[in-house]
Amino acid sequence: MRFELKAVSPEGRVESLDYQGLDEASVVQQAQGHGYAVLAVRERGGFPAALGAGIGLRRERFPLVLFSQELLVLLEAGLPLVEAVQTLAERERRREFRTLLSRIVAVMREGHSFSSALEQFPLAFPALYVATARASERTGDLAPALSRYVAYQNQIDSVKKRLINASIYPLLLLGAGGLVSLFLLLYVVPRFSRVYEDRNMDLPLFSRLLLTWGQAVEGHALLAVVVLAAVAAGLLYALTRPAVRAALGDALWRLPSIGERLKLYQLARFYRTIGMLLRGGVPLLAALAMGESLLHPVLRARLAAASRAISEGRPVSQSMEAAGLTTAVALRMLAVGEQGGNMGEMMDRIAGFHDDEISRWVDWFTRLFEPLLMAAIGLVIGGIVILMYMPVFELAGSLQ
What we know:
Layout: E1 2-8, E2 14-20, H1 24-33, E3 37-43, H2 47-54, H3 64-76, H4 81-91, H5 95-109, H6 114-119, H7 127-139, H8 142-199, H9 205-219, H10 221-240, H11 242-254, H12 256-279, H13 284-290, H14 297-311, H15 316-322, H16 328-340, H17 343-399
Antiparallel strand pairs: 1-2, 1-3
Helix pairs in contact: 3-4, 3-8, 4-5, 7-8, 8-9, 8-12, 8-17, 9-17, 12-13, 12-17, 14-15, 15-16, 16-17
């Protein structure tokens, strides 16, 4: 990203500077490194950036998993941490990311810890990653901590990919069915309405309604296209709004079966995150606080109640059960983890069990939903065609 800075030069002049960096903090640090005193920072919003923001495109994210994998390889090869990050910075091709890694190296050379350097760039390194690095600094096992984070992120991504792959075919069916229906309503029906208008035929009610629609489109074709495009643009814009997405999410949560599966998916991701943090040495209450952002607002309130109960000395399994944050399987495994002192491992197992359960449900749902969706699309398209040809069928019957 490019930023425009107003700063005071070492000679005392106010100048306008153009810097490129990952975020405002990085460009401010670059300018200060050249002796400037920064007065104001503004992101440059050229046409491509404005266009991308308008349609909801995200800027390129820092490849955190790839960075962790490469850093892990260098550390296992025996390189010191600072030299390993410096090596990654030198071989990075993208300027923003190279600048980011160089700033991390500079912060560490000033005597700060690795986690403190990461914490200065929250857009690239989430709080979960920083906490993992900070916990590993206490025990001196950064390489195993990176390995755990990579495994954790790969498992999370695997579940997301399964969900996305399961939704591709239904979306394609909806898109194809919608395009065919629009073609019939906007192109075929208006031409049929013109033919039947000249014949002055007695038509069934629904056929008359359909042909009335065709006549309206025929007389105002440009207006119909503009209205259709405006509706499509409005829907796309609405889907980019956080409030609309939150409302849709709340509506899905209220559906009996789907809401339960969404809760189970969030709990599985939550347990996997807490398990990874516990295995990395993060205290339980701190880990619960960091995993709070992964939960729906309703579940966050329950987690706050469970955290209070745990801080008061109640067992984890009982506190989570009282807050409604367990399943029958999770409750038993949490109790076993408390007795055996391996809570982090048990939470990983809980997450794995529920991930498999979610995958089986998604497979069952897609097998059921896809034929139902195809049948619904066929009924809509077939209904339009039958209503258009109904007068022809009646005419053929009268001739017989």
